[in-house]
């Protein structure tokens, strides 16, 4: 049994932008995920963070083949998951399960909890007689901290946190090796978030699970992950252990991201330096050349940044970063400078984004 | 999509919120399931209840009535020709002395059975075809939707009329299938559209992920989630199937002699409608009452299963306005 459970190699997901009256002509691509390599070790929790639209969910879905990747492959426990078909794929899917973001929409409103949980067992012939199944169901419910009376109820009768627990129980029902959690707590209340995160950790210990947690909440990721990958515009920009990353971010984007976390100490909060990024996230349909981040980077240099795409390189053991100037930035040789936001124009008309017309808010409309 | 979501979400609370005495005190040991809620909403709609009881009474009459009547539809009373209703013949008799009550009941039987079967078959076909096309998309979708479009363009009445000589003398089953074959298309398109949205819901993805084959996902997740649409559609279809059957039979293309349906009865009695009104009024009256009742039930079901539809909202608005006044 090798140490690596999942290995993603040069994963790319490009969505075509189609246009045309009579024929669907592909006029461009949205580069949602553009060349990502990552490895997840057995029994660890890998956190994937990034702002919305950076491709983290798409990456997760592509790994699970909910969308087909354009290129690249995912090797799961020695098998190439991305080439499996039909029955083999169905069998393999038992070992990778998913916890969804919206706990209500991920549960069929017409199914009782019992039938939600039994469904997976039936599909994989793990349903061996009434006795053992009901025992298994009770085990599952107690593992996620729900009473056995929940079996006869329907999803709408539960609170958000409880629904997410049902979602987790459903994922657990098939005894998976890997659980991909796409924003597992972002739809929940903060106090409930903590419960669910702790539950995930307990279950990991109990069943020896491996997690891939996709989130935009840095605090959640810090709490739950062993290793963290930071994504920006379809690419991985930094990867390190959780402590390393939060103590010493190397990539300018990670620094900016982490400086956005408020510190619960008014004195420190007032004085600490915050890196505010100028401009917007460039369109993934038309990503900048060279380093994807150079249009907004306060440490941007004259050379290399806008011409050469930096590869993910290991700067310190276990700490990878995709920046040409990471060492110099870390040593203070390069100081940040002001960045003028670049207007992202729809020059070639292939941006999928609809331009917003009119004032952005009520305040703006009232006080022009 | 949001409709279903809201329904599920509000199922436990909406009753209390609207302040209705029916919902306010549900038995504490009985959980408020969706079915119970729909039932309560349906029962509250008086017109729908009336419709439902009319339908039940009509079915009972059609099937039990002939057993109680001393006359049968193929038996003539040679002492009474063209008699208006009187004690012996409650609906009167026609020109060869057949008891009109027996005839109308026989016709009603045929029409109701045909209506029910056509509605069931066409809704079933619509659900299967629509869900399959919407779920698989691609070539299957294009092929099925092409058939749907083709059938929609063809004038169904003419086609059945042209084909009717072929099944002259065959059993009325053929007519059922012909009628069903031309009634499912519009529903199939709606079902396809709903499947497209349901397919994107996460529980469908989760089921796919659990390794459920496509047919199980369609049968267990997609079709049940549009049950409200299908039930309503089936109900309304009963009415339109009966109308279509009567229409065809009136022109002599549907049910063939010596068998009778409401359509053939209306057809033969049409020329004497003003002179011997009981020949015409009884079958026509039953037809109107039945179709009306079916539509009331359909409306009631729609309001019960889909409370966000406009009618209820209007009514609620009126209620609040009255309270405010």
TrEMBL record, chain B:
Q: Which UniProt keywords apply?
A: Cell inner membrane, Cell membrane, Membrane, Peptide transport, Protein transport, Transmembrane, Transmembrane helix, Transport
Query: Where is this protein localized, as stated in its record?
Result: Cell inner membrane; Cell membrane
Q: Where is the composition biased (Low complexity)?
A: 8-20
InterPro entries cross-referenced by the UniProt entry: BP-dependent_transpt_permease (IPR050366), MetI-like (IPR000515), MetI-like_sf (IPR035906), OppC_N (IPR025966)
Transmembrane stretches, start-end: 47-68, 112-137, 144-166, 172-191, 278-298
For region Disordered, the annotated ranges are 1-28
Q: Which residues form the ABC transmembrane type-1 domain?
A: 112-298
Membrane topology listed for this record: Multi-pass membrane protein
Pfam families assigned to the protein according to its UniProt record, in alphabetical order = BPD_transp_1, OppC_N
What family does the entry list?
Belongs to the binding-protein-dependent transport system permease family. OppBC subfamily.
Name under which the protein is recorded: Oligopeptide transport system permease protein OppC
- This protein's species is Lentzea rhizosphaerae
Query: What lineage does UniProt assign to this protein's organism?
Result: Bacteria, Bacillati, Actinomycetota, Actinomycetes, Pseudonocardiales
